[in-house]
Amino acid sequence: MKEVSPESNKNSGNNGEQFQELLRDIDNLLEIPVRIDVVVGRKMAKIREILELEPGYIFDLKRSGGESLMIYLSDVYFGKGEVTVIEDTFGVRLTEINDPRKV
User: Fold this and answer.
1) What is the mean pLDDT of residues 57-75?
2) What is the CATH number of domain 33-102?
């Protein structure tokens, strides 16, 4: 059985304050904005090709029409999704979340 000294009892009030401070810190972390990018595909091009771009150009992304979109959180791969329509706007339905332990 652990013996409790009078000194440890004095610090126990501090633990409640520390816990409240920790909760405030966590709450602040939860408010940090994170950019979400949904990527249809990627393509490399030479500067010469980029300078020749004009309206109507179609980028061949070498992906099939039904293939999942890639989702990144602040440039870190997060998962996959599929395009969905919400009333008259586009959205992305999350279909797969990446396991960060496998990266």
Assistant:
1) 90
2) 2.30.330.10
